Amino acid sequence: MATLEFFYDFVSPYSYLASTQVEALAARTGAALRWRPFLLGGVLKATDNKAPAETPAKYAHVKVDSARWAKRLGVPFAFAPSHPFSTVLAMRCALAAERHGKLVPFTHAAFRAAWVEGQDLSKPEALAAVAASVGLDGPALVASAPEFKAALTASTEEAVRRGTFGAPTFFVGEELFVGNDRLDFVEAALRTG
Q1: Number of Cα atoms under 13 Å in the Cβ half of residue 59
Q2: How many CB atoms lie within 10 A of CB 113?
Q3: 0.85 exceeded by the pTM?
Q4: Is 104 helix (H, G, I), strand (E, B) or coil?
Q5: pLDDT classification of 1: cutoffs 50, 70, 90
Q6: Phi first, then psi: what are they for 33, rounded to 5°?
């Protein structure tokens, strides 16, 4: 059975869009899906890449383009009013949720909070509410997040070492795909691999 690795960060609207599709894709292809939280800011810094928000024309396009994608995919979407927001705490919380076997539900709830409900995931109280919504002790989860600093750094460094420069990033074996618009190529690689 092939494995599909999905590296994502909550700050990325395209990661949100991919998160709404990737489970069905894995099911269609019989792939094992591995959710891989990482820090997009760390990726951008390591690869000398700029965030879209740093280029006004690109940022304006991302806002329109991500809304177009959401409409095409038939998923709810509202560009996060606090974007760009820091996700260091949020991504550490995702890893903390993984320890409790709740990474996937936490991830879906966090993406929904940011990209549908307009919540600021840099706020501990927003993250505690996300955690509580999936049956976790929200304040305890947020308090445990610093324990996952090294794990988040390692995941980010691994993705960079393997060639990524943005989010979302997918790996089928060592074959790299960057962007939610590459999911058709991901599916083809899973079917032929």
Answers
A1: 10
A2: 21
A3: yes
A4: helix
A5: confident
A6: -100, 125
